[in-house]
Amino acid sequence: MLRSIVRHCAGSLALIGVLAAAAGSAFAAFPDKPVRLVVPFAPGGGTDLIARTLGAEMSKDLGQPVIVDNKPGAGTVIGTDNVAKSLPDGYSVVVASFAHAVNPALHARLPYGSNKAFAPVILIGRGPNVLVVRSASGYKSVGDVLAAAKASPGKLTFASQGAGTSAHLAGELFANLAKVKLTHIPYRGAGPALTDLMGGQVDMMFATAAAVSTFIDNGKLRVLGVTTTEPSAAFKDAPPIANTVPGYRVESWYGLYVPAATPAPVIERLNMAARKAARSPDFVRKLEHEGLVVSAGPAAELDTYVQAEEKRWAQIVKQNNIQPD
Question: C or N terminus of the chain, fewer CB within 10 Å?
Answer without folding.
Answer: N
